[in-house]
Amino acid sequence: MRILVADDDPTSRLIVQTALRGLGHDCQTVTDGAKAWDAFQARLPDVVISDWMMPGLTGLELCRNIRQHATGRYVYFIMVSAQGFLEEILEGMTAGADDYLVKPLDPDDLQARLIGAARVTALHRQLAQQRDEMKALNHELTSIARHDALTGLGNRRALQEDLELLEARVTRYGHRYCMALIDVDHFKSYNDAYGHQAGDHALKAVAAQLKAKARSGDALYRYGGEEFLCIFPEQSTERGTRAVERMRTGVQRLGVLHAANPRGVLTVSAGVAMLHPERPRSASAVLKEADEALYRAKQLGRNRVEHVERGQVDPGQAAQDQPSGVQLIDQAEYVKPAVFRHPA
Ligand code: GH3
Ligand code: MG
Ligand code: MG
Fold first, then answer.
1. Is the pLDDT of residue 146 over 80?
2. Atom nearest to 200 CA in ligand 1
3. Can you tell me which atom of ligand 1 is nearest the CA of 199?
């Protein structure tokens, strides 16, 4: 163990130092409390053996300092007191000391205390390691809970959480977001022709392509079975639509064979809508609008991107546009279940 010994009495220092080195410990000695505090911060020892009465800082002050100083690892503190000063020992233990030794020091006694110190510090190290592992595991679990297993994109849960944040950012800070619903064309017939497993591969490829075409600040989610949602922060409808166009052509250029699609390859259609401070409303209202634009893209022949033109929105809609909290996405799904079916 790495042990710091603080004692202004040269005889005591020598006894401890000789015993510790004999036991194979890495020992550093200092002659007063202030130097002990400096040495402690510089080297972070496993164990501190400190005299009670020293110039600079007393052993008690040193102990308190060490306990207040968060290092992330446990330091075992042994207080050394002159014989007959039991109150000192009690005060020292109350201040955070783990154990005590009484002068004149006895090397066997010291060895016995260090066995306990080694056990306690090892236990603390093990606990710290387990805590770190738990933290990493929690982090991983949180990530799994927010990601779709097939595509690795954000899942519905992540989307729901993020949309609530976006709504707040629009109303409080004036941020704007362009949102695009992207749906794979004729995907049912792709599954029918090539099998569900091939369908899964195709969905993965489409998701990877969308991701490749997205910029670092854009957020992508798997919205439903073969439907994706991309959020472009601080983009106008025009720029957002151009970005979705890049995604659409990117998917087409993948060249995933799809005989039942008139283009001969897998394609996507998309609908774009805006969430912005000039027209504060719920994200679900925006998604509904994007869904309407997507519906139009499908009707106009698929493999295209549509957006709701300014002023085209029904003013009577405003009453339904209020932020609605947790039901955001279900409302969006409810829009046209007959046209855009999502798997359960
Ligand atoms: P449209 O061009 O109008 O969007 O037609 P579509 O066939 O893509 O739309 P529809 O909603 O009729 O069918 C969607 C299909 O997507 C049906 C479903 O089996 C398939 N699908 C949804 N999720 C998955 C999935 O995780 N894996 C596979 N392989 N297929 C899926
Ligand atoms: Mg589809
Ligand atoms: Mg669909």
1. yes
2. 29
3. 29
Could you say which of 61, 133, 167, 226 is catalytic? 226
| Secondary structure E strands in 139-282 | 177-184, 219-222, 227-233, 268-275
Q: Are residues 218 and 303 in the same domain?
A: yes
DSSP for 30-78 reads: ESSHHHHHHHHHHH--SEEEEESS-SSS-HHHHHHHHHHS--SS--EEE
Domain residues for 298?
156-340
Confirm whether 148 is domain-assigned: no
Give the end of a domain, one of 70, 105, 138.
138
**294 alpha carbon – ligand 3 mean position (Å):** 10
Whether 226 is a known active-site residue: answer yes
Take atom 2 of ligand 1 and give the residue whose Cα is closest.
185
Task: Please list every protein residue whose CB sits less than 6 Å from any atom of ligand 1.
Answer: 150, 183-189, 191, 196, 199-200, 203, 225-226, 298, 302, 341, 343
Render pLDDT for 243-289 as a digit per residue (tens, 0 to 9). 999 999 999 999 999 999 999 999 999 999 999 998 888 999 999 99
**Residues 202, 125: one domain?**
no
Tokens for 102, please give them. 């009484």
Digit-coded pLDDT (tens) for 161-202: 999 999 989 989 999 999 999 999 999 999 999 999 999 999
Closest CA to 48 of 71, 83, 129: 71
Based on the fold, state whether residues 129 and 169 are members of the same structural domain.
Answer: no
The answer, as to whether pTM is greater than 0.90, is: no
- Number of domains into which the chain is organized: 2
Atom 19 in ligand 1: residue holding the nearest Cα: 188
Tokens linked to 43: 């080297």
CA–CA separation, 134 and 140 (whole Å): 10
Q: Looking at this protein, which amino acid is placed at residue 105?
A: L
- 19-28, 54-63, 68-77, 159-168: least confident range: 68-77
CA-202 nearest atom, ligand 1: 29
User: Would you say 212 and 152 are in contact if contact means Cβ atoms under 8 Å apart?
Assistant: no
pLDDT for 114-138, tens place per residue?
999 999 999 999 999 999 999 999 9
